[in-house]
Structures are given as C-alpha cells and as structure tokens.
Amino acid sequence: MRYIIIGAGAVGGSVGGRLAEAGHDVVLVARGAHLRALRERGLTLTTPDGTRTHRPPVVSEPAELGTLRPDDVLVLAVKTQDSEAALGAWSTRPVAGGTTAAESLPVVCAQNGVDSERMALRRFARVYGMCVWLPATYVEPGTVAAAGAPYTGILHIGRYPSGTDDTARRVAAGLQDAKLLAPVVGDVMRWKYGKLLANLANAVEALTGPLVEEAALAVNRRARAEGEAVLAAAGIAAVGEREHVAARAGRLVLEPMESGANGAGGPRGGSTWQSLTRGTGTVEVDYLNGEIALLGREHGVPTPVNDALQRLANTFAQERRAAGSMPVAELVAHVERVRGEEPRPVT
C-alpha cells in the first residue's frame, strides 16, 4: 500500500512521519510555507522517543503524482471545512487499469467531526471513517510534534457507514507497524460521535484558554449536555467518556519531549486553538459545535451554548483575534444572553 496523506499538518504529518519511519510508502500533500519547508528540509517529527527527519515525496496537488496506483490509500487529514475541495480534486484522478480514484481507491477520513464521510460517499465508492485520538502540534512549517506514548495515536477505523473489511484491516496493520494503534471496528461512527462530544470543548479553549477556571468548565459541561441531548433525540449512538478513557488507558499517555512542545496544541491548545494561532482565517467549529446546532434545529432541541460558541469562534477566526484572548466572564455573559433562544425545527 502507498499512503497519500492529504493534509500533512499536525495529525497528517504525525501519521505520515510514523508510516515513513516504519518503512511504508508515503506521499505527503501540503501547501504554502509548509509545502516549501517539506520540500526543502523534509518532515521533522518530534515524539517522546526523539526527533527524526523524513523525506517522503511531497506534492501540492494530485496532478503532480500523475496516474495513481491501484494500491494507493487516500488519507484525508485536512480540516473538515476543506474536505469538499480536496475530495473533488482527488476523486477524478486516473488510476492505473482504467478507473478513477472515486471508483476504485479507498479514502479514509482521519478528521474530527462526522460530516466528511458523507461528503466523501457522494463521490467515492469506498469510504472509511477514522476516529482520531492523536495529540499533535504543528510547530512551524516542516515540523510537527506528537506527545503520545507508547502509541503516538489511537485511530479506530471502519467502513462507512458501518462494517469492516480486508482493506480496513490492512490499513490498521500498517498503522500499528508505525506505533499507531488502529482498532478495526464495525461501528466507527459511534466512536466519531463520541469524539465529537469531546471536541465541543475546543471552542471554549480557543476562546478563553486552557479549561482550568470553573466557569469555563461549566460552559463546556453545558455544551456537552446539549450535545448528548441532541444525539439522544436524533437516535444517534455515541461512545461514552468511560469507554473512550478505557480505550486509551495505558496506550496513549502524554510524555515530555525535547522540543518542549506538549503535543496537544503547541504550548497550550488543541486543533481550534492552533488554527486561530496560525491565523488561517477559518476554524472547524461549524462541524463540531455547529453539528450539534444543526441536529438541534432538525430535532427541536435547544442548543444555545453551542450556537454561541460557534458564532464566537467563527468571529475570532475571521477577525484574526488571538487565541485565548476572551475573558471567561465575557464568554459566560455571551452564553447567558442566548439562554432563552429556541431552535425552529425544519419543516
């Protein structure tokens, strides 16, 4: 198998680096300053067991690879807001033997949120979900860090919308060679919905900083309670916190690293924090808190806390405001102002 990592940032770079280190055939797809650094200096990956530089092929677009191989696996690791563009670009690429990527290649959605799999299935015949537990940091162009040990990440994988097959098992075996535990599960979306509930905290952290103040923790608890109520109303199963914790116990522990990065988002934060810090102009909040808001409107369940978090995080991104710069009291005030809002069910 050749793994084409579409979006070689924190998570994609960590997965691609570990696979390359284990001797697997890897191609990294990147853009901008990160692309230039990868081409000039290679990918530097720091983990608790040291820092290594890998030099797999790097491309900016599918055409640079020419005709794809029948054994290629597309690993989609961009933020969900970038999924449509990536899926459209790769789906029509020719594959040796006379098919296209959409017809014959597997695409693995290694992302937060639960929407990319559905986007992918519009184009690709073979779609796989992946629940990503991989605390990683985009340190600077060409450099990523991941602090998990003894495994760098835990990546539950399964066929979308459900089931397993030989491809999922082969991908999982390759990942496990690379210090990435990849349990093959028939209910991968149950795992991803569980992760979605955990990721509702990303917006709170990105707005106010690390979740240490009780008021911020209370906002997060309310956001999660809304999420749980919405999933229950929609009849959607989600892995609970205890099951997630049990799956990671002893397998994924954050360890100090020589770079000083903690692997959980640079000095302080997770993926949404990192997007704000890098000034990308977008965050994935529409597919995290916004997913809860969407389901709430569909099923008539109020989601005022997630609505507020979605609006505020998008405003921060568009205005290039500093991550963590909102006082917790200001966030609480925003949340309190929308408590009386009710969703209007879609008819």
Automatic annotation (TrEMBL):
Residues 187-314 form the Ketopantoate reductase C-terminal domain. GO terms for cellular component: cytoplasm. It comes from the Bacteria. InterPro entries: 6-PGluconate_DH-like_C_sf, 6PGD_dom2, KPA_reductase, KPR-Related, KPR_N, NAD(P)-bd_dom_sf. Residues 4-159 form the Ketopantoate reductase N-terminal domain. PANTHER family: 2-DEHYDROPANTOATE 2-REDUCTASE (PTHR21708:SF45), PROBABLE 2-DEHYDROPANTOATE 2-REDUCTASE (PTHR21708). This is Ketopantoate reductase family protein. It comes from Streptomyces typhae.
